[in-house]
Amino acid sequence: MLGLQRLRTLGDKPCLLEQITLPLPAFAPLVASETPAWDDLLYPMYQRVCGVTVHRAEDHLSFGLLTSVQAELLQLEAAHPCVQVRRSAFDMAGRCVELRTTLGDAFAFQYTAQIR
Questions:
Q1: In terms of Cα–Cα distance, which of 22, 5, 21 is closest to 103?
Q2: Among 27, 34, 46, 78, which one is most buried in terms of CB atoms within 10 A?
């Protein structure tokens, strides 16, 4: 398993903290690369670099408080309210190819859903 942390920014301000777990050997080509050099959109990069196509994903949302380490990375106060999105992404065969937990400022959180 390849585990990594990625800090997403908007302009120069940190806005999202991601903890991503990817199964090896499928994602072995990413091991030697630095996450700041990764594409903003990971799924097209997974397909291009590793040959892994994400077909669907499930998100589970909850709210909590940031730890002091998480808050420092996001330039917020410790115990600041956060949104937590836990994602499981699946390939065409239905295998889970990514586990991702994303944390962000709960006061800046927006959610949109379409049901058809």
A1: 5
A2: 46
